[in-house]
Amino acid sequence: MASLGVNIDHIAGVRQARRTVEPDPVSYALLAELGGADGITVHLREDRRHIQDRDVQLLREVVRSRLNLEMAATAEMEVMALGIKPHMVTLVPEKRQEVTTEGGLDVAGQLGSLTGLVGRLQEAGIGVSLFVDAAPAQLEASAASGARWVELHTGTYAEASWGRQAKELARLTEGCFLARSLGLRVNAGHGLTYQNVEPVAAIEGMEELNIGHTIVARALAVGLEQAVRQMKALVQNPRRDLLFGSSQP
Length: 249
Ligand code: PXP
Description:
CATH superfamily: Aldolase class I
Largest sheet: 8 strands, parallel, barrel
Bound molecules: pyridoxine-5'-phosphate
Strand order of the largest sheet: 1-2-3-4-5-6-7-8
CATH class: Alpha Beta
CATH topology: TIM Barrel
Order of helices and strands: EHHEHEHEHEHEHHEHEHH
CATH architecture: Alpha-Beta Barrel
Distance between the termini: 28 Å
Mean pLDDT: 95
Number of strands: 8
Number of domains: 1
């Protein structure tokens, strides 16, 4: 059964729109945990457009589930992670101009430097996950880096047209199988919604889904605790008959 990591970046985004103190993502992390979140995920971006250093420091103290820090593989972020020691670091690619994380990390293209960083973080007791496309070359490189987890990028699946969705789901399923056969543990995320999450949650061996935008959007209507509860029900008990061709006419 997959677990649910709740990404609260968009709560910080509302605060930063006014550069004020509310809504405070730290308080909302606790509400997400009340709703059943198995982990809290935040992305500390180089430009600090939503989550701030203070948020990560406070979250490390108050989160009772697990804190997953998404960050770029830079020297600045390495210092930050080694100081704060989240339970998990997920290394993501980052471009200043992007609206959200686009594409997976090119692990194969920077294996040497990533292997060093993965080793230093893991030596400090931090679990390391690499956010990658479900491509064999990236999964093989991820295993070679020494990382214990990968997070499969579900953006292409989430954005696929009806006709392509089953193909993209098969790519994720095969990626999950290959990653596990290479000894990696597998999470997934990006672009998942209440409508498209079940087939991904039903993939054999999928451990955790990291979901943010759709939960924060629903929270405007029903409150965060309830929005998390509704997503957790889908992640824990997905309808299995949706696994292939869920949206096929
Ligand atoms: N996983 C990673 C690595 C991400 O970068 C993001 C977006 O911040 C998510 C999961 C969550 O994506 P979404 O907000 O689309 O659910």
